[in-house]
Amino acid sequence: MRVLVWNCSMSFRKKLDAVMRLAPDIAVIGNSEFPDKLYPGSGPKISGSLWFGNDRKSGLGIYSFGKWHIQPHPVHDASVKTLVPIECTNGNTAFLLLAFQGAPASGRQGYGKAFHDYQQALTYIEHIRGRTAIFAGEMGEAALSLWNRESVEGGYGDLEQVLAQADLRSCYHAFTRETPGRERTPTLYLGRDMRQGIHTTCCFASTDLLLGLEDVQVGRPETWLDYSEHMPLVVDFA
Fold first, then answer.
1. Three-class SS of residue 145?
2. ∠ CA 72-95-145 to the nearest 5 degrees?
3. Taking the CA of residue 94 as centre, how many other CA atoms within 13 Å lie in the half-sphere pointing to its CB?
4. Alpha helix (H) ranges present in 87-233?
5. Which of these, 7, 9, 181, 208, could form a disulfide with 30 (CB 3.0-4.6 Å)?
6. φ and ψ at 17, to 5 degrees?
7. Helices (DSSP H) in the chain: which residue ranges?
8. What is the rounded average pLDDT of the residues 190-219?
9. Strand, coil or helix: what is 122?
């Protein structure tokens, strides 16, 4: 199973082919336009699409491919557009996905910000316990709180701890053995500036999935900066 997490910086219809070349099973796409623009020309490539937002030009999109089916979990609060629980199924295989779209990063002044859906996340995470699950999205400013050691309540450090208590851990850090805050591979180049690289995209997974973790890749800027200042994070499970 391949999970792709990417902030496409809008106009997803123009970038879908690049995503398709990575052959994901499930894709969490931040700043995705309302998916009707992906059809009919690209429709057959996508087996399922869910979209959450207030502006049809930019919302949180979750897409499935092949035999994967996606639908909102019954506990979903429809008023929350930037953090959604999704049931993902493929025959007898199933997992609960908490997909999110964080607040925009704003450079160095972004340090210390809280994850803006932290309290809602606590509620949803209760439904993860004991389940095969993934928590994935682009953190935005919240990811930077741990980096600067100025964590506020609900910042990245708190979220990481709560997820660990629910048996979810970062796939990137588990695979690379890198220390959070000292990642060697950025997932965001602010303003497409190669000197302003930071790591803000994440995919946490439950232990049963991590035991089958096969690969974690981050898109190369020479390929992806033409599409977005964000790089896709691609995670492969057995």
1. helix
2. 80
3. 12
4. 118-125, 144-147, 156-165, 171-176, 207-210, 221-224
5. 7
6. -60, -35
7. 16-20, 118-125, 144-147, 156-165, 171-176, 207-210, 221-224
8. 95
9. helix
